[in-house]
Amino acid sequence: MGGVRAGDGPLAGQLRQMLHAGELDLPLPGAGQTARRWAALADWGGRDLSLARLAEGHVDALAILAEAGRPPVPGALYGVWASRSGGAAVRLEQGRTSRVLTGDMRFCSGARVLDRVLLVADPAADSSSTERLLVDVDVRVAGAEPEPDSWCTAAMADADTLDVAFREVAVADADLVGPPGWYVARPGFALGGAGVAAVWWGGAAGVLDRVLGHLRPVPDAHQLAHVGELHAALAASDALLAQTAATVDDDPAADHGLAVATVRAAVERATREVLDRVPRIVGPAPLSRDVGLARALADLALYVRQHHAERDHAALGGQVVDRWRSA
């Protein structure tokens, strides 16, 4: 068993219950019920963003396996670890008797909770290919070692997001998912990004719901103005999520990169408005006395930074210009 496990904590227990009850069995993206899939992700985000982070990783992994035509290991709680932060990476090297995973991966949510992950690995240093590989790996084995001191904030702490060191973890040929480069080239890659945006949306809507409970019986005009603008921003991005889901289901094989980038930008903008305006609506007392509100704000501020801010906005702008020029 690699590292210290956290599989018996309250959130892990809740995830196991959801898994065994079938609550994590969502419709696949692009299969006709994408709106229902994203609504479930949003609902989890509104309940608890750490829970939603792990649940989203599991359902994303199952969608990736389905796209590859592979069944998941029965009863296993999955995640997807694909971070390239700070240049840290795991390589698939040739060991003495088999190929092995060696290196360090950052931002491994569920590091001490999950059973298996789909891990994006670099090819061996001496490989002629530069295409990354996707590996279905058991992370409970010796050699997959979570680093407990690698998460230094209380935000999203229950998601158990740590660095994980891989030290010659054996990989069989059957553990490889798709050909080299398949993980990012597959049609479902963009759709997974929209699922994450649905979680952000749920987290932001959940914060606003909590704020409404702190308003006086007769809120002042400034509070009402903020609430009205937040409601409008969330309603607009929710409508865009629904429209995008319908577009995806109408033509699952099409390139939905622009639509997904657009909806992610819209939800990220609405979320930033929530993070900016909520403290101005409620003032210091609820921020310091409502632990649930304080935690939800901190979790949301960190989680939404999976969106790469101006870099993602610039990439979206480039797609818009290219689309206009080719029309």
Explain briefly what this protein structure is.
By secondary structure, the chain is α/β, with parallel strands linked by helices. The protein has helices at residues 10-20, 34-47, 49-67, 182-185, 188-212, 221-250, 257-282, 284-289, 291-303, 310-326, and strands spanning 78-81, 90-94, 99-108, 116-123, 133-138, 144-147, 162-171. The chain is built from ten helices and seven strands.
Lay out the secondary structure:
Elements: H1 10-20, H2 34-47, H3 49-67, E1 78-81, E2 90-94, E3 99-108, E4 116-123, E5 133-138, E6 144-147, E7 162-171, H4 182-185, H5 188-212, H6 221-250, H7 257-282, H8 284-289, H9 291-303, H10 310-326
Parallel strand pairs: 1-4, 2-4
Antiparallel strand pairs: 2-3, 3-7, 4-5, 6-7
Helix pairs in contact: 1-3, 2-3, 2-5, 3-5, 5-6, 5-7, 5-9, 6-7, 7-10
Protein name: Acyl-CoA dehydrogenase family protein
Pfam families: Acyl-CoA_dh_1
Family: Belongs to the acyl-CoA dehydrogenase family.
